[in-house]
């Protein structure tokens, strides 16, 4: 019974964890951007200048059987900001959550979500 209670508390605390990060970026056309992200309750939310660009789950996107048991995986997310393509590649593992953000194919930010 104590083991079940401990597992439930661990899952509850993990599910409520909110990781966040932000980083400034100046695009090739000179526009200043603040790229920020957080992970409330297992959902990746990415903003560019307070405009929500990505709102998607952090569950492993790989549908293979081996991926179901993987402790480390990478997801790719797409969005747009004022007509510019935003691509975010996030690496998730038990110890780290890290996202590389690209604006129109140009590297813009590396966010360590803590």
UniProtKB/TrEMBL annotation:
Keyword field contains Signal: yes
Entry annotated with the keyword Lipoprotein: yes
Keywords, sorted A to Z: Lipoprotein, Signal
Extent of the signal sequence: 1-21
Top-rank taxon: Bacteria
Name listed for the protein in its UniProt record: Lipoprotein
Organism whose genome encodes this protein: Enterobacter sp. (strain 638)
């Amino acid at each position: 019974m104590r083991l079940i209670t401990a597992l439930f508390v661990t899952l509850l605390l993990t599910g409520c964890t909110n990781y966040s990060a932000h980083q400034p970026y100046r695009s090739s056309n000179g526009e200043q951007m603040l790229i920020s992200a957080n992970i409330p309750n297992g959902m990746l939310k990415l903003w560019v200048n307070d405009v929500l660009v990505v709102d998607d789950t952090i569950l492993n996107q790989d549908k293979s059987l081996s991926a179901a048991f993987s402790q480390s995986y990478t997801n790719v997310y797409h969005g747009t900001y004022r007509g510019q393509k935003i691509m975010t590649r996030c690496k998730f593992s038990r110890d780290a959550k890290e996202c590389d953000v690209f604006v129109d194919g140009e590297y813009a930010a590396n966010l360590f979500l803590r």
